[in-house]
What does this fold into?
Amino acid sequence: MILIRSLNQINKTINQCCLTVGNFDGLHQGHLEIINKVKNIAKEKKLSSALLTFQPHPISFIKKNYQQDFIITNLATKIDIIKKLGIDYLIILKFDNNFANITAKDFIDEILIKKLNTKHLVIGYNFNFGKNREGNIETLKKTTIQLNQVEPVMIRLDDQEIISSSTNIRNLIKEGNFNFANKILTKNFTISGTVNYGQKLATKIGFPTLNITPKSFMIRPKFGVYKTKTFIPSLKKSFASITNFGIKPTINYGGQPIYETHIPNFSENIYEQKIYIEFINFIREERNFFNIEDLKKQINKDILECNL
It folds into this structure.
């Protein structure tokens, strides 16, 4: 895969291509349907396959506080997933005020046709583009670019059925509903970060934790206890774990929310190392216990419930 980070870098690098455009936050089942369509058409028509996305998320120009508690998949992970999907070109353009003011016509003429040499375009069911989101599928039908629009992908879990969309995934994460969120994502929702030196209070009560401060722009689950799986790159190994996300009310922590992950029988020193935590399911909400002994009893129950 060739990664392109600006329009100036493109020049005549890209041959005629089948392209898709979008934010692709989460790279869920709906996104995979679009990407597979791009690859199939590119192969059939002997075109290059290409994906155009943006950094930061365009919603930052609509909702100024979007960077707080919003993004499902960080950029590095997004690049890695798209590379594994076998796309020929990944174009990541900086979304700023100048880009936000490009008209739909100029986006088609100057970027899709002139810069990217787009012969075929695959879009989602709710695709809009250009200044004030003025462009849509009807706009594209008036161009020389061949067009495919992918219908919504519906996901069923038990007696519920919803559209595979980034918005729905965010709502499910906020509810702590990882059974459904992970099914739409086709993978476990994952956060990453560097293990912090804490106050070692959890160690003092017999349950040492790996503590990670959440990145402000990443989506956050509701406060509570979760069954998780923790991957430690330096050890090249994953561990069954339990994670509390919240503000630790029982010990009057009083700080910003934090991820605390406990791995039973784990004693390695991995402070200042990066780890990855996959969320499997919700166990219970965070609670303020009467005393530390009650908290310890509940943690033991949580560990048993997680089969750790």
